[in-house]
Amino acid sequence: MASQLLPIRNLGTAAIFRASHSSSFSRFLAQLKLKNFPFSSRPCRLVHRREYTGGQTFSPRSARSGSKSLIEDEAELSDWVSDIRKDAFHRKLSSEDESSARDRGTGSKVRDRDLLKSKGGERNFRPAVHGGPSSRRIRLGQSKRGRGDYQFGDDVDDDYTDDDNDNNDVDDDDDDEEDSDGQSDFGSDFFGDKEALKDSAAEGAGEKGSSVFSTDGDIVKAISQTSTPRSESYLSLARFDQFPLSPLSLKGVKAAGYERMTEVQEATLPVILKGKDVLAKARTGTGKTVAFLLPAIEVVVKLPPLDRDNKRPPVHVLVICPTRELADQAAAEASKLLKYHASIGVQVVIGGTRLALEQKRMQTNPCQILVATPGRLRDHMENTPGFANRLSGVKVLVLDEADRLLDMGFRKDIEKIVAELPKQRQTLLFSATVPDQVRQMCYIAMKRDSEFISTVVEGSEETHSQVSQTHLIAPLDKQFSMLYRILIDHIAEDVDYKVILFCTTAMVTKFVADLLAELSLNVREMHSRKPQSYRTRVAKEFKESKGLILVTSDVSARGVDYPDVTLVIQVGVPADREQYIHRLGRTGRKGKEGKGILLLAPWENFFLQSIRDLPLTNAEVPIIDPDTRKKVERALAHVEMKNKESAYQAWLGYYKSIANIGRDKSKLVLFANEFSRSMGLDNPPAIAMLTLRKMGLNNVPGLRSK
Ligand SMILES: Nc1ncnc2c1ncn2[C@@H]1O[C@H](COP(=O)(O)OP(=O)(O)OP(=O)(O)O)[C@@H](O)[C@H]1O
Which segments constitute the DEAD-box RNA helicase Q domain (predicted)? Predict the structure, then answer.
């Protein structure tokens, strides 16, 4: 019984037992997969906290040698992290956690509540028990070599700068910050705690909504006893007004229409308000933006107001986002929350707009909160007088879509930016996905006692259960007809349809959008080759409308909050598992239902292995009648030749970067020519010799050069 209710605690107990009886602790750690942290491997709802306060001394090799490679550091870091874990586990589990594991072993709600009481009185819940009903929290001790000691290196290759995965064309934008994909140079419900909180709130907190939070102490809050309707399960029981937020922020929150918090907001707010560095993971569309903006605004509120005579006032909060749309969206969310904070300003700096305009705007309307994409931010750091100085006032750094920003494509930019920021700051990293390798990088940018907070319990799916996921395997020559059929069927099913169709590259996106427009579907296209003004307009239109299909590259994969998307289709293998999850996350937001279809060629089905833990089923195979086939063929014939040529070249570049496909060049070319035929081109388009050389595909039989 107890083990069913408290798997993590029991794992902790097991850890102590086995640790103290094993001659090889590190082997034991490996068995427990401590690289992934020792959480239950099955879904459960509970709050978990591990403290890693190991006072390890991590020899700052980089401090001795100056600039060095991050890759080199990863190996060093991984040794260090496992050392910390070993030590921290040994010490912590054999003290605090061991006893609490035993105490909680009864699984009794009353017992849990008693435990809470003993830790701070009935109202005084420790953050450890707070973190949201299904969140878990780890405090990560860092070595003596903290954030500030780290020397960022230049050895990471990030030549590839195209989020759309097209690698052969030169983007005409001055800023490619969102255009990288890092692929290559191309191209039991644990009601114990929750109930205890509710009960205690009822007993102790008295009136609903009264805040008992103090950032100084360990008191967190009282939970009101509203029931959670199922359709709003993304919301927690907590309300914003139960937290010590400034009255103007609370007014802003209310005006934005938010009353109850989402789980990630509830879990992170008290920790961030305490000034801790936080790495937070929560599913897509669950309100992470507000989760980092609100406490960041509170930091600004507590600082002295801007000196009006200062022409270059400090930026206090710097939010970095991987795409322009996302930066715009975060700034818009900040503006909503700042509605009543007349003295706090927010501005956005993104590529695709004139640098001079942004410079002027920042001068005439100084802001304390700046939202930026990495490339443009660096541009300002290098070319805007006094800008670097303004950044010396940064108190809070936020990396939205942190794993993306710390991934190869952006890492170098982020390293350079972070190196210019004050070491005394709070760092917040948020994402729906945090792969292990990236998680280790995150710690480097954060302080010693940072916390990892996840509302996605280990062993549970990273995607939403209310989104049905299917896959369809079909040869390329059938895919466009199938795609058309799927769309037609979906439109017939739902007049309020709103579809996002992801393609592998910008040029393939363009081609598919052209094709679907030829088929008289109501499509819009979105990718990095479109001017920013167009992108902004289409994003707005798609946000506000229904009955539309957005054909897009990965510029729309992360973060963008289009409400009520009914279907997400992904054609071709996604860049990685994370990208699949983020793309799918454009539907099923805020607890809504949605559908996802992944359309792959037979030779792409290796990808299914990387998402085997997600609940994908076989999609119903659409029936392609001769009329549909003919219609699609006719439409294909109308698509401009140059668009097909560009799509072919981009396709080749993208798949060259997918290891499973690109490593066998002759197969790659066979598949590319299959793609060419699927576009109606029996004779594959010729590619410039220089481009072929750049792709490492010169002299490969089956390719035509010009
Ligand atoms: N407390 C709240 N109550 C109701 N709606 C909320 C609340 N907080 C945020 N939202 C809304 O939820 C939606 C999703 O939020 P947001 O875009 O921040 O999600 P996210 O977790 O960052 O998603 P992604 O992982 O895709 O970036 C937005 O429309 C936002 O306005």
Answer: 238-266
